[in-house]
Amino acid sequence: MSRSVLVTGGNRGIGLAIAQAFADAGDKVAITYRSGEPPKGFLAVKCDITESEQVEQAYKEIEEKQGPVEVLVANAGVTRDQLLLRMSEEDFTSVLETNLTGTFRVVKAAAKKMLRARKGRIILISSVVGLLGSAGQANYAASKAGLVGFARSLARELGSRNITVNVVAPGFVDTDMTRVLTDEQRKTIVGQVPLGRYAQPEEVAASVRFLASDEAAYITGAVIPVDGGLGMGH
């Protein structure tokens, strides 16, 4: 059955792989993007999730063109890495504003219609960094850890309406963002991963699609690591 799916930040990397996985399965897929040219094949809606009005407008357009969102994947996020003593307050708050508060906005908008329909799937994209920590990423780690508490609270709040809320926590994924690292940096990272390699975006997408499937109907409040064993024990 074709569902209305929204993937925020679905124009590249992990988000694009997730959007493609749903489209390949026959779902109607909308993506949000902030800048540049969006990929073809999806309902692309320009939206900055730090702006409530833009989020509201994006949902109106999506609902008009493909129906109320039945599966939400909150993937949009930013980094502003810096050591604590060099990190400005704006460095800290801007990352939380996008990664955590922005996710709150898009989830709240989707949940309104899901509650009426008495069904829905919400999947938040966190990070192994939110569980493990990472020097120079206190802002990013805090925002991604916050998603876990947010998701688990909503899992309890929305579960009686047949809405599941889960988290996927990728490790190091082979995307444009990680390809800018030097060979030495990549080697150091891979050395920490028990499986000894980066993840492919499609591997993260497969876990997201599973959580949105009928087979995962009894899974909620879970944190699914796709990290090659890097964050095990958290």
Automatic annotation (TrEMBL):
Question: What InterPro entries would the database entry show?
Answer: 3oxo_ACP_reduc, KR_dom, NAD(P)-bd_dom_sf, Sc_DH/Rdtase_CS, SDR_fam
Domain Ketoreductase, chain residue ranges per copy: 3-176
The UniProt annotation places NADP(+) binding at G9, G10, N11, R12, N75, Y140, A141, A142, S143, K144
A Pfam match: adh_short_C2
Q: Name one GO biological process term.
A: fatty acid biosynthetic process
Q: Which reaction does it catalyse?
A: a (3R)-hydroxyacyl-[ACP] + NADP(+) = a 3-oxoacyl-[ACP] + NADPH + H(+)
Q: Which class of enzymes does this protein belong to?
A: oxidoreductase
One MF annotation (Gene Ontology) recorded for this entry: NAD binding
Q: According to its UniProt record, which residues of this chain constitute the active site?
A: Y140
Q: Which SUPFAM superfamilies match?
A: NAD(P)-binding Rossmann-fold domains
The Enzyme Commission number assigned here is: 1.1.1.100
Which pathway or pathways does this protein act in? Lipid metabolism; fatty acid biosynthesis
Q: Which domain of life is it from?
A: Bacteria
| Keywords for the protein's UniProt record, in alphabetical order | Fatty acid biosynthesis, Fatty acid metabolism, Lipid biosynthesis, Lipid metabolism, NADP, Oxidoreductase
Q: How does it assemble?
A: Homotetramer.
PANTHER family named in the record: 3-OXOACYL-[ACYL-CARRIER-PROTEIN] REDUCTASE, SHORT-CHAIN DEHYDROGENASES/REDUCTASES FAMILY MEMBER
The family annotation for this protein states: Belongs to the short-chain dehydrogenases/reductases (SDR) family.
Protein's job: Catalyzes the NADPH-dependent reduction of beta-ketoacyl-ACP substrates to beta-hydroxyacyl-ACP products, the first reductive step in the elongation cycle of fatty acid biosynthesis.
Protein's UniProt name: 3-oxoacyl-[acyl-carrier-protein] reductase
Q: Which organism is it from?
A: Actinacidiphila oryziradicis
